[in-house]
Design brief:
alpha/beta, Rossmann fold, two-stranded antiparallel ribbon, 9 helices
Length: about 250
């Protein structure tokens, strides 16, 4: 028997019974008509998509020009088939994730390209933008452009390094907007570092997932879904001490 779609917003292909059973449909309306962009569909960006796709936002635009490869499969949500990975010519990340999450959400829009300072103006009407890329200079330049066009963004990043016979590191979430942005030069670097965690190929799925969840929680706070007393604009989770540092509160 075919399941009847019962969503008020008509963005889901089957009803959100979890929200209806909990009686929080009225809170979900805070996401209606939002237009979300996710820049970068690597480990963290893919987990961000996984969570945003489970909210009734109007549209989710995903931007990435990379091909989905074997190493991506081990730090992304779910399980990809070997047939997909072995397809001749490869499959773009955005096309793979569009196919997967369009099973649930009708507003997924795939863009097989990178966002640059040349085309960033195409995102000027978006409600929020998640930035999940591994190039500091590109990240920094995009941040400045988003401030210029008045778009609120949530930038994520992880740093992992070897500490003797184990790993240590941190996961960061930084928010920038016209409301508050004086902290950004201290939180988002503008040059590449020789100690960049990506150059060491240390990417762990659980840290990607954690980084994404912290970013999504912050987005939901900004949207009024969760209470936000501190209104921090930078959060840093430290692995070895299990601390979450919340900083850069509005004056």
């Amino acid at each position: 028997m075919k399941t009847e779609v019962m969503s008020d917003t008509n963005v889901f292909k089957y009803p959100d019974t979890n929200s209806s059973r909990a009686g929080i449909e009225f809170l979900n309306r805070k996401f209606e008509n939002q237009k979300i962009a996710i820049i970068g569909l690597g480990g963290t960006g893919s987990y961000i998509l996984d969570q945003v796709a489970k909210t009734p936002v109007k549209e989710i635009h995903i931007f990435d020009d990379d091909v989905f490869q074997l190493h991506n499969a081990f730090r992304s949500p779910g399980a990809v088939s070997s047939e997909k990975l072995e397809a001749e010519g490869g499959m773009k990340k955005v096309d793979y994730y569009h196919e997967v999450y369009s099973n649930m959400h009708t507003g997924i829009k795939a863009h097989p390209k990178y966002v640059t300072i040349e085309n960033v103006n195409e995102l000027k009407d978006f409600s929020y933008v998640f930035i999940s890329i591994d190039k500091n200079e590109v990240r920094y330049n995009l941040v400045k452009e988003f401030l210029n066009i008045g778009v609120t963004f949530i930038d994520v990043g992880i740093g992992v390094n070897k500490a003797n016979d184990c790993l240590n590191g941190a996961a960061r979430v930084t928010v920038g907007s016209s409301y508050k942005n004086d902290h950004l030069d201290f939180r988002i670097g503008s040059v590449e570092s020789e100690e960049n965690e990506y150059s060491n190929n240390i990417q762990i799925a659980d840290l990607n997932c954690l980084n994404a969840m912290l970013a999504v929680l912050k987005w939901k706070k900004l949207s009024g879904f969760y209470q936000d007393i501190k209104q921090e604009h930078n959060s840093l989770f430290l692995i070895n001490t299990n601390k979450l540092l919340n900083e850069d509160n509005p004056a």
